[in-house]
Every structure is written in structure tokens, then in C-alpha cells.
Design goal:
The chain has helices at 2-34, 38-44, 48-59. It has 62 residues and is mainly alpha-helical. α1 packs across α3 (48-59).
Length: 62
């Protein structure tokens, strides 16, 4: 019985993780292709990989 209660939660987490993974890959490709520029990297102190991960999480919040 407890498994039926957790099943939707597990599925939602799985889909959200997949969304984050795909969005991060897309953002990384876009950032590398568009050359986001040194000023942004210097201003934030983050790497392109870190910025792509942040973008991936932003795209999948709901």
C-alpha cells in the first residue's frame, strides 16, 4: 500500500531529473556555441558548466 503512495513522487522525481539533465546539456551546447563572453564568466565567478547546470534547474522548476 505504501508503494502506491510513493509511486507518483518517484515518477515525478525521475522526470524532473531527466528534464534537468537534458536542459543542462542544451544550455551547455548553447553557451559553448554562442560564446557567452568573458565578462559574464568573470562577473559571476562561475564556469560555463556551472552556468549550464543553473540554467537546467531554472528550466525544470514547476
Amino acid at each position: 500500500m505504501f508503494g502506491f503512495y510513493l509511486s507518483p513522487v518517484v515518477k515525478e522525481a525521475k522526470y524532473k531529473n531527466q528534464c534537468i539533465k537534458n536542459s543542462t546539456k542544451g544550455a551547455l551546447t548553447k553557451f559553448n556555441k554562442d560564446d557567452i563572453g568573458q565578462p559574464l564568466l568573470e562577473e559571476t565567478g562561475l564556469s560555463i558548466d556551472e552556468l549550464a547546470k543553473i540554467e537546467g534547474y531554472k528550466n525544470c522548476i514547476n
